[in-house]
From TrEMBL:
<comment type="similarity">
    <text>Belongs to the multicopper oxidase family.</text>
</comment>
<dbReference type="InterPro" id="IPR017761">
    <property type="entry name" value="Laccase"/>
</dbReference>
<dbReference type="InterPro" id="IPR002355">
    <property type="entry name" value="Cu_oxidase_Cu_BS"/>
</dbReference>
<keyword id="KW-0732">Signal</keyword>
<keyword id="KW-0186">Copper</keyword>
<dbReference type="InterPro" id="IPR034289">
    <property type="entry name" value="CuRO_3_LCC"/>
</dbReference>
<comment type="function">
    <text>Lignin degradation and detoxification of lignin-derived products.</text>
</comment>
<dbReference type="InterPro" id="IPR008972">
    <property type="entry name" value="Cupredoxin"/>
</dbReference>
<dbReference type="InterPro" id="IPR011707">
    <property type="entry name" value="Cu-oxidase-like_N"/>
</dbReference>
<feature type="domain" description="Plastocyanin-like">
    <location>
        <begin position="164"/>
        <end position="314"/>
    </location>
</feature>
<dbReference type="GO" id="GO:0048046">
    <property type="term" value="C:apoplast"/>
</dbReference>
<dbReference type="GO" id="GO:0046274">
    <property type="term" value="P:lignin catabolic process"/>
</dbReference>
<dbReference type="GO" id="GO:0005507">
    <property type="term" value="F:copper ion binding"/>
</dbReference>
<dbReference type="InterPro" id="IPR011706">
    <property type="entry name" value="Cu-oxidase_C"/>
</dbReference>
<dbReference type="InterPro" id="IPR033138">
    <property type="entry name" value="Cu_oxidase_CS"/>
</dbReference>
<keyword id="KW-0560">Oxidoreductase</keyword>
<keyword id="KW-0677">Repeat</keyword>
């Protein structure tokens, strides 16, 4: 008996310690309550005041700060005249797909005058994410930062910075963005490009009527600060640089990375990059600037430059600096794909990671644009794309159509027939020279609401292959509900015989949005461990509207913890 007790006591002590640790973790996790009122607010930019859709009258919207393990409860009240939803970009939403936010995918929209409460827990994510509207083009102005600090008592894997500053890169139209997209939808042409880029909502010194409100980022000589850079632009990849200062990249999409130093960042819409910056230059004022990386040859784009000011606050500077013009950075040329590639291929996880090596689902998705012939009986004013066509886009030649009577998640969970089919092709229906001269017979995709079904726990590889249909360009592809490893990228057509040798299965970066290179490909892997319906789409909003999207259904696993939660009682109805 004594012998048994001597074994039992250490065991019971071990379990007791485990329970205490679990309770301590639960006790340190907090619930954060927020109210988001979606409303029209007068906002003046570029000399003109617009009735802009905002959250709580703020542009950009409020920054939410939480710790890893915390829960967010955000009550969204729609006082605007448009339908709206909010997406928590990059949040894993484990089993809480009802809170993910894309309109008609995981919920019906919040109608004017109605409300909906998003409830979800941050699990195992640290760094910078963001939130934005996921309904038509509302995210042009409805967005904000979501900052996830380490759990209480834990620290960053780098020295604690003196200050932390979100740097939100945005895009501004000197018009109502909803009118811009509605006109393009009616005409079938490409929408007008933006009139300015912004940093934290301000265009900066290089635009009319803007210099008095330019964003200022204060620093003290010698200190190291953390910049949380977010590309919230609607339709444009952006280069970002700070004059005379090096940037040390330490995180991206709320995952830490192996630190590397660079003078320029390239972010696709949806992507975030955390960088350390040391104030090691002469005390002065330095521009931080962003402008387009425009990879689509011959396509119109906004070629302006937004600026903010990194301002040294030392005594020797305070009286003189304001009189001098800030130092300007050198930014890459608009079409500098070599610089964009050199940057994206530097990303690595900090240590060896568990990349799925045996693959259950080996998928190959083409991503690109297309042109629809003018429908029979349509007027020429509705077919103002090239040569009397209408712009479209597709994945594997299927142009994605959102339902309108039910959300896909509701239809899946309730078994409602006729809303979607599960025959999204695992490979292109026709093989062709994807990045070469593509036959015009392949420029017109089929339309459909086709999903691809994954078993719970399936190990998935997706080759994302860009095409040169109409024009080739870099596509930022975002997967909802998941992070994935980017194990390789390259140019030309993906060749399974030779390109698999380039796979990084040791320390690839973990991201939620992958930049598929212009006339090239990227390969991602993930484990389907989060049940629900998850949208995968190009984060250039003009392309998602044209149909450059698909969705995965991930089936429930065996246990309750492997199954989608029941829908909340206040889920909006269509």
């Amino acid at each position: 008996m004594k012998a048994f007790n001597s074994i039992a006591n250490p065991l019971s002590s071990f379990f007791f310690v485990c329970i205490l640790l679990l309770l301590a973790n639960a006790a340190s996790a907090k619930i954060h309550y927020h109210n988001f009122v979606i409303q029209a607010t007068p906002v003046k930019r570029l000399c003109k005041t617009h009735n802009t859709i905002t959250v709580n009258g703020q542009f950009p919207g409020p920054t939410l700060e939480v710790n890893n393990g915390d829960t967010l409860v955000v009550n969204v009240v729609n006082k605007a005249r448009y339908n709206v939803t909010i997406h928590w970009h990059g949040v894993r939403q484990m089993r809480t797909g009802w809170a993910d936010g894309p309109e008609f995918v995981t919920q019906c929209p919040i109608r004017p005058g109605k409300s909906y409460t998003y409830r979800f827990t941050i699990q195992g994510q640290e760094g910078t994410l963001w939130w934005h509207a996921h309904s038509s083009w509302l995210r042009a102005t409805v967005y904000g930062a979501l900052i996830i600090h380490p759990k209480e008592g834990e620290s960053y894997p780098f020295a604690k910075p003196k200050r932390e500053t979100p740097i939100m890169l945005g895009e501004w139209w000197d018009a109502n963005p909803m009118d811009v997209i509605r006109r393009a939808t009616r005409t079938g042409a490409a929408p007008n490009v933006s009139d300015a880029y912004t940093i934290n909502g301000q265009p900066g010194d290089l635009y009319k009527c803007s210099s008095q409100d330019t964003t200022i980022v204060p620093v003290d000589s010698g200190e190291t600060n953390l910049l949380r850079v977010i590309n919230a632009a609607l339709n444009q990849q952006l280069f970002f640089s700070v004059a005379n200062h090096k940037l040390t990249v330490v995180g991206a999409d709320a995952s830490y990375v192996k630190p590397f130093t660079t003078s320029v960042l390239m972010l696709g819409p949806g992507q975030t990059t955390d960088v350390l910056i040391t104030a090691d230059q002469q005390p002065a004022r330095y521009y931080m600037a962003a402008r387009a990386y425009a990879s689509a040859q011959g396509n119109p784009f906004d070629n302006t430059t937004t600026t903010a000011i990194l301002e040294y606050k030392t005594a020797s500077c305070s009286s003189n600096c304001v009189k001098t013009n800030p130092v300007s950075p050198s930014l890459p040329a608009f079409n500098d794909t070599a610089t964009a590639t050199a940057f994206t291929t530097k990303f690595r996880s900090p240590r060896k990671v568990e990349v799925p090596t045996e693959i259950d689902e080996n998928l190959f998705f083409t991503v690109g644009l297309g042109l629809n012939n003018c429908p029979r009986g349509a007027r020429s004013r509705n077919c103002q794309g090239p040569n009397g066509t209408r712009f479209t886009a597709s994945m594997n030649n299927v142009s994605f159509v959102l339902p309108s009577n039910y959300s896909l998640l509701q239809a899946h969970q309730q078994g409602i027939p006729g809303v979607f089919s599960t025959d999204f092709p695992a490979n292109p229906p026709v093989k062709f020279d994807y990045t070469g001269n593509v036959s015009r017979s392949l420029w017109q995709p089929t339309r459909g609401t086709k999903l691809y079904k994954l078993k719970y726990g399936a190990r998935v590889q997706v080759v994302l292959q860009g095409t040169s249909i109409f024009t080739a360009e870099n596509h930022p592809i975002h997967l909802h509900g998941y992070d994935f490893y980017i194990i390789a990228e390259g140019f030309g057509n993906f060749n399974p015989k030779t390109d698999t040798a380039k796979f990084n299965l040791v320390d690839p970066p973990l991201r939620n949005t992958a930049s598929v290179p212009v006339k090239g490909w990227a390969v991602i892997r993930f484990v389907a461990d989060n049940p629900g319906v998850w949208l995968m789409h190009c984060h250039l909003d003009v392309h998602i509207g044209w149909g450059l999207a698909m969705a995965f259904i991930v089936e429930n696993g065996v246990t309750q913890l492997e199954s989608l939660e029941a829908p909340p009682v206040d889920l909006p109805v269509c």
